Amino acid sequence: MSDWQFKLLYDGQCPLCRREAQWLQRRNQSGRLAFEDISAPGFEASRYGVTQAEVMGVIHGVFPDGRVVRKVAVFREAYRVVGLGWLLAPTGWPGLRWLSDRGYEWFARNRLTIGKYLGGPNCETGMCAVSSASPSRWPWLIFIIIAVFAVTGSLELGMGRSLLGPDGKFGLWESNIWSSENSQRFADPYSFSHLIHGMLFYAGLWLVARKVPLRFRLMIALLLEASWELLENSPFIINRYRETTISLGYVGDSVLNSMSDILMMMLGFLFAWRVKPWFTVTVILVLEVGCALLIRDNLTLNIIMLLHPIDAIKQWQMAGAPTP
What we know:
Elements: E1 6-10, H1 15-26, E2 33-37, H2 52-57, E3 60-62, E4 68-70, H3 72-81, H4 85-88, H5 96-109, H6 111-117, H7 138-158, H8 191-209, H9 214-232, H10 235-244, H11 255-274, H12 277-295, H13 299-307, H14 311-318
Parallel strand pairs: 1-2
Antiparallel strand pairs: 1-3, 3-4
């Protein structure tokens, strides 16, 4: 009988994958996690009932009884075996499981490019050499991101927020801002406001801290957004929304929606990083004007109504409410 409880099949030719494996090896004091390099001579994917193309496409893991798991489930099990299972547990929650797997699929397709931009080796081909003088920084970035999501979600559950909304059902999109399902599904029209949060955070941090490495600015933005999500779901802000905005029946976000809001901010931040400033400004204007026309609300109006309510704005917004 094998001594290991789980085997990680990793791509040793991928610098990010290799560093993650090395990071786990340093924490594998019990030896219960085994490692096998799928790029090593003599590796045969057929021994595990899969093809070489499949194991090169997404990460795979194997149990001693031959069961094979893929994608984020591999990391959940590997982290569990080395005693860090709590860290990735949220990725197995309903809704977040699907989201984490889709995010990983995107990462797997772009892992070499991501490694370059996050401080990894500069790859011009598919084969990259890792400098021993270069510290392994990217696992800590991923660790912090996951930890912020996990802590924020846990705190919101402790504050009485529901995981998927009052009805307990998972949904990807809710277009009706007057519906009780608004702010309960994965995304809704207000998700565009959180994309703008990210763009504005990037611009603001570039203005005041442009010499700070991108990954640290992203962490600052992440902490700011997570802090806002916690504040937004506090009784004070919930009641403020009810009193001064068109969100008369607002009961707080579901944890799923709140996690989506943070993700949208990150996407907006990275978008602003990759495009010209004029294009970011154009996108913000299009989103703000589009939301104002379609739902009579947007980030600008939301801020105004929270800080200094104007009756004329509220009357105009309420005119768009459906007739009972």
